[in-house]
């Protein structure tokens, strides 16, 4: 399992993620966003990513747009939750890297925060 970054618990998982190249972290984060959006919805992905990456709504919008997401597509659902098109969630990965110096760490935090989702899939 070491070569894949997977592990039995979140602490070991975080440690193994730190040994992975940026490209792998980026791919896993984008794939996780897609998978969670399919299973649990875009609102869940946005909320989880904002929490893990420590972004307020304005910062989230900036990250999304700077990563290539269409700014005009940021909106709210009927309950007022911040949403973006599921097909554009990948934009958060290059966006966080372009907007903050510790983008890699924030992506790792997102992956670790969703460890239970990975185990489920």
Shape: globular
**How much of the polypeptide forms β-strand, as a percent range?**
under 5%
Query: What's the pLDDT, averaged over the residues?
Result: 92
Largest sheet report: 2 strands, antiparallel
Unreliable stretches:
none
Rg over C-alpha atoms, rounded to the nearest angstrom: 14 Å
Q: What order do the helices and strands follow? A: HHHHEEHHH
- For the largest sheet, list the strands in their spatial order: 1-2
Share of residues in helices: 55-70%
Total E-strand runs = 2
Structural class: mainly alpha
| Cα end-to-end separation | 16 Å
Count of helices?
7
Outline the fold blueprint.
Blueprint lengths: L9 H9 L3 H19 L1 H12 L3 H10 L8 E2 L5 E2 L8 H8 L3 H11 L1 H6 L1
Antiparallel strand pairs: 1-2
Describe the protein in words.
The protein has 121 residues and is mainly alpha-helical. Helix content is 62%, strand content 3%. It has seven helices and two strands. A hairpin with a 5-residue loop joins strand 1 and strand 2 (82-83). It is globular, with a radius of gyration of 14 Å.
Short account of what is shown:
The chain is mainly alpha-helical.
Descriptors:
121 residues; 3% strand; mainly alpha; two-stranded antiparallel ribbon; 7 helices
């Amino acid at each position: 399992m070491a070569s894949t970054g997977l592990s039995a618990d979140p602490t070991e998982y975080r440690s193994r993620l730190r040994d992975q190249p940026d490209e792998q972290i980026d791919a896993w984060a984008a794939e996780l966003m897609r998978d969670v959006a399919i299973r649990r919805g875009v609102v869940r992905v946005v909320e989880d990513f904002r929490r893990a990456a420590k972004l307020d709504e304005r910062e989230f919008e900036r990250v999304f747009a700077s990563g290539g997401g269409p700014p005009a597509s940021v909106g709210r659902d009927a309950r007022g939750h911040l949403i973006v098109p599921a097909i554009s969630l990948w934009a958060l990965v290059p966006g966080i890297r372009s907007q903050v110096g510790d983008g890699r760490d924030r992506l790792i935090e997102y992956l670790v925060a969703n460890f239970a989702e990975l185990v489920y899939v």
